Amino acid sequence: MRISKTTSGSPAGTVKRGATSTDRSGFSSALEAPAQTAAARPTAGTVSVSSVAALMALQGAEDPLEQRKRAKRRGRQLIDALDRLKIDILDESSPKASLDQMQSLLDSAREESDDPELESLIDQIELRIAVELAKHSRVS
Fold it and tell me: For burial by CB atoms within 10 Å, which of 33, 72, 107, 123 has the most?
């Protein structure tokens, strides 16, 4: 395909000069700092104590979804600790580090969630960890 001629509005080297001196002076005056500063406005009234107390109460209230996420995270950590213990036993290596981690997970504070099924699962996992800790403490 061959292109023989293209059309354009103006040659490539030309520049339109449509700006007048009034346009430039308007632009430069907009850049200058204003001569007069605005008067200080009075501030709004202070927040009442009851509003602050309500805000503090809202910040302290926990989202049920966030509680559920933390409970799930704890359950996963407990399952991971049991898996590490299983791997240590299968590899015939010392399970002391895994047992110590499992004990620290059991000793850590537990987040309660509003889901009874999730709570039941975590109870069962914690019971299994307690059994494993008891078995290995008896052997040691």
Answer: 72
User: Which amino acid belongs to residue 135?
Assistant: K
Q: What is the pLDDT of residues 93-134, one digit of tens each?
A: 888 999 999 999 998 888 888 889 999 999 999 999 999 999
**Ranges of each domain in the chain:** 63-139
Please choose, from the candidates 15, 31, 122, 13, the residue with its C-alpha nearest in 3D space to the C-alpha of residue 68: 122
Pick from 50, 69, 72, 53: nearest CA to 61 = 53
DSSP conformation class of 108: S
In angstroms, the Cα distances linking 31 to 19, 25, 34, 43, 55 are 17, 10, 9, 29, 43
Q: Phi/psi zone of residue 14: left (φ > 0), alpha (ψ -120 to 50 degrees), beta?
A: beta
Closest to 82 in 3D by CA, of 116, 129, 32: 129
SS3 labels along 14-59: CCCCCCCHHHHHHHHHHHCCCCCCCCCCCCCCCCCHHHHHHHHHHH
Distance CA 104, CA 129 (A): 11
pTM score: 0.54
Q: How many CB atoms lie within 10 A of CB 67?
A: 16
